[in-house]
Amino acid sequence: MKLEIRGLTKRFGSFTANDKIDLTIEPGEIHCLLGENGAGKSTLMNMLYGLLEPSEGELLVDGEPVRFGSPGDAIAAGIGMVHQHFMLIPVFTVAENVMLGREKTRGLGFLNRAAAADLVRELSTTYRLAVDPDALVEEIPVGVQQRVEIIKALANHAKVLILDEPTAVLTPQEIDELMGIMRELKKQGTSIIFITHKLREVKAIGDRISVIRRGKVVGTADPSASEAELAEMMVGRSVKLTVDKQVAKTGSPVLAVKDVTVVDPRGVQVVKDVSFEARAGEVLGIAGVQGNGQTELIKSLLGLVKPDAGEITIDGKDIRKHGPRESLAEGIGYIPEDRSHDGYVGAFSVRENLVLDLYREKEFSRGMALRLDKLEENAAHRIEEFDIRTESMESSVSSLSGGNQQKVVVAREFSRPLKVLIASQPTRGVDVGSIEFIHKRIIAERDKGVAVVIVSTELDEIYALSDRIAVMYDGRIVGTVTPDIAREDIGLMMAGAHGPAEAAEATR
Amino acid sequence: MSTEPRTQAAPEPEEAQAPAAGERKPTRRPIAAADWIPTIKTTIAAIVLALVIGAVLIAFSSQAVLETLPYFFSYPWDFFSEAAHAIGESYWALLTGSVGSTSALATTLVRSAPLICAGLGVTLAFRAGLFNIGAQGQLILGALAAGYVGFTWDLPPGIHLLAALVAGLLGGALWGGIAGVLKARTGAHEVITTIMMNYLAAALLIYCLGKNAFQRPGSDNTQSPPVNDSATFPTVGNLHLGVIVAFLAAVLVWWILNRSTLGFEMRAVGANPDASRTAGMNVPAVYTTAMIIAGALAGLAATMGILGHHDSLSPTMAGSIGFDAITVALLGRATPIGTVLAGLLFGALSVGGVAMQASAAATPKELTQILQALIVLFVAAPALVQGIMRMKATDENKTVMAKGWGG
C-alpha cells in the first residue's frame, strides 16, 4: 500500500502545528520521521490515524483520496499505530487484548478466546514476534508488550504501521529485537513509519529519512548521511555533538560511598556492596543498563531510601541517616531520573518550581511567609540564565516541552552552592539543542570544583561527560575505567564482565 | 572513542499541540484574572440552569398550575400564566427571604458561617491532596468540646468564650489529626478513615449525651444545656460575631495556602508527593498538619452553632453541615474565596427556602435542596453546561478531582 500525504496542514488557533507537509510512504519501506520534541511529528501522525482533522491538504491511499474521521476509518484503510504509551489493558491476557474491540463470539455472546489465541499464535509465527497469547499483559516485559501492540495492529490487517518513539522504553537488547521485527515486517511488505529523535537508530534501520522542524518537512535524507548532518537538519543550526571540556583538575574526594547495600521493599538486594569516591572537579559517570541498581543507589545518596549497610560521607561527614532535606542542605544537588515524577510539580508554575527545595531559605521566606517578590526575582533571573522557554513565569511546568522542564530542574539545582551534583539521566527526553546546553552547564559545575556523579544508560552521554566511568551490573560496580576504553569493552562490562581486562579477554 | 557523537535522549510525550514555547519573553506578572473567568462563567451558567430546572419543578408542584392541566389544550394561557405566577412568586420569596432585608441577610450570614468554616477545612485538606470526608465527625467533636467547656466551666465573659472556642478548635483538630496521623504513618486512605471517624463521632456524641455531665437538668430528652451566656459570641441584632471569625478564618486559610511556606508545602505535596519528598519536604508531617488544621476548621464550624446560635448538643445538632461542606468546597473549586461564595449561596438558599414555603405559591422548601444538588451536578459536569449553554469549550473543563484509591 502506498500512502501519500499532500499539503497536510493543521492549525490550532493561530498556531500552525503542521505546515503543508508532503510525504510519500512507498510499499514495504521503513520511513523514518526525525524531529525534535514539539516539531509536530505527533500531530502529523494523529492526523494519519484519524485522531485529528486536518485543516488543509489530503491523504491518498494507493492514489485514492481518503478522509479519516476516526481511528476506525484509518484502521479500515490499513493503517496501524503503536503509541508511545501502550494502549493495553494490564489485567487482560495478550489474546484478550488483541481481540479487544473485535471480539469473536460463539453464539449466545460467549467469547471465543481460543480463536483469538490462535490468531495471536498465527501472527507471531508469520512475523516472528515471540509472544505467549495466554500471558497476562501486566506480567510481561515492556518489550513484549510492544510486540502485543504490533500484533494488535497486524490483526487489523495494517499495511502501514506507525511506530511512535518505539525505542524510548526499551533496553538496548530489546531495541535490537525490535529492529529485527521491523526488518521482518518490511520483508513481508508492510510499510513502517518510524518516529524517533535518535539519530543512531534512524541510520541503522531507515530506508528514507524525513526531517520535520517547526511543523515543516525541512528535508529528506539518506541513511548514509552523517549524524552531524541529520542533527543540523533537525535543530536548524549546527550542533556540537561533543562537549568542549578541559582536562579535569581533580581535587580531593568529596563524596565517599563505602560498601553500600540497599534492599528494596520486596526484600531483593538491589545495590550490593557498592563503593566509590567522587572527587572535586571531576565527573564520575555511572554506566549500566537500566534496572541494575543505579536508581536505588542514587536514591540512597540523597536519603530517599535508607541504605541497609555501608557508609556514605560528604567531606568526611556521615550522611547515611540523612533524609532528603538534610542531604540537600549538605550541598547535594539532585537531578532525578524521572523529572515529572520526582523533579517538579507539574501543576506548579515555573516560578514555584524554581524554589521547590529552596523556599525554606532565608532568601525566599521570612518566618512562615513566602517572599513573593524574591520568588519572582529569582524566576526572572533563572529563566534568563538558563534560557527556559516559557510564556511566563506563571505558566505551569507541565505545559512546557520536555527540554524546558528539565531546564527548570537543572536551573533550580544549580542555583545554590553545591559540593556534589548527582544527575540521573540528565538529558532524557530532551531535544538536541537543550542537551548541548545542559551538558555545558554540568561541565561548568565541574570546573567550579563540584564533584559530579552522572548516571546514564546512554553510553554516548557517559562518554561525553565523564572523566572516570564506573559500570554497574546487577547491583554491583563491576569496574571503574577511563573514557578511553573501547565501547565494546564497556558494553561487555555492562553485561556483567568484570573490569576491562576480562572484557578484553572476552572479545578475543 | 570519547568524541563519538551523541544521539542520546529518550522521548517525552510530544507537546505538538502547545504552541512552540519560545521566542516570547517571559512576562513578569501574568494576567491571572483571565484564568478564573471561565470558571466563574461555568459556575454562573450552572446556577442559571439549575434555576431553570427548578422553575419547571415549581410550576408542577403548584396546586393552581396543576388545576389548569385538564383543560390545557382548550385554554393553555391559564397554564402559562399560573406557572409564571408560581415561579415568580417562589423565586421572589427565595430572594427577599434570604437577602431582601437586613434581618434576612443576617440570618443568611449566620446560616452560612458554619458551612464556610467546615468548607474551608475540606478545601484546605483538598489542596494537600487529601479528600476529607470527615468534616461531620470533626464538627461533632468540636461541638462536644466547645459545648462542654461552655456549659460546665465558669469563667468571666470573653475568657470563657475564648476557652470554649479553643476547645472547639482542639476537638475538631484531634479528630482530623487522628486521620492525618493514620495517613502519614500507615498510609491508611483518608477517605476510609474519615468516614469511619464520622461514625465514631456520632456514636461518641450519643454516648456523651447519655451521661449526666451532658444532660440538661429537668429534661428527659437526650439534649445538653445550652452554653452559658459568658461563652457566647456577642450579637448585633440577630447576627452573632462568630460570623466575623468565619470570614477571618477564610482570610487565614487563603494566606496559609497562597502566601506561607506551609501552604507551599501543602500544595506541592497535594500535586506531587514524590517530587515534594525529593525536594526535602516532610510529606507525612504535611499530611498530618493539613488534617489537623482541617479538623480545627470543622471545629470552628461547630462553635458557630454552639456558641453563636445557642444550640445545645443533641443527636441531630450537626445536621448535614459536614457533608454540605464537601459540596461547598467542591462548588468553590477548593479555593478559599470560592468556598466563601459557595457557603453564602448555600446559606441563602436554605434561609430563602423557608420564605419560599411561606409564600403564596407554597413551594416546598425542599426545592432549595434540589437546586443545591443541581448546581453541584452542573458544576461537576462543565462540559454538559457548556454544551447546553453553547459556551466555547475551554481547557478549564477540569473539576476538582480527588485522587484515586492508590494515592
Anisotropy-based shape of chain B: globular
The portion of residues assigned to helices of chain A is 25-40%
Q: Average pLDDT of chain B, to the nearest integer?
A: 86
Spans of chain A with pLDDT under 50 lasting ≥5 residues?
none
Derived structural class of chain B: mainly alpha
**Major β-sheet profile of chain A:** 6 strands, mixed
Head-to-tail CA distance between termini of chain A:
47 Å
Q: Please give the radius of gyration of chain B in angstroms.
A: 25 Å
Q: What's the number of extended β-strand segments of chain B?
A: 2
Main beta-sheet strand count, sense and barrel state of chain B: 2 strands, antiparallel
Please give a structural write-up.
The complex is a heterodimer of chains A (508) and B (407). With 508 residues, chain A is α/β, with parallel strands linked by helices. In chain A, 33% of the residues lie in helices and 25% in strands. Chain A has 18 helices and 22 strands. In chain A, helix 17 packs across helix 18. The radius of gyration of chain A is 25 Å and the shape is globular. The model of chain A has no long low-confidence stretch (mean pLDDT 87). Chain B is mainly alpha-helical and 407 residues long. Chain B contains 15 helices and 2 strands. Chain B has helices at 33-61, 63-68, 76-99, 102-127, 135-152, 159-186, 190-209, 242-259, 261-271, 273-278, 283-308, 321-331, 336-358, 366-380, 382-389, and strands at 235-236, 239-240. Chain B has a two-stranded antiparallel ribbon. In chain B, strand 1 and strand 2 (239-240) form a beta hairpin. In chain B, helix 12 crosses helix 13. At the A-B interface, helix 1, helix 7, helix 8, helix 10 and helix 11 of A face helix 9 and helix 10 of B.
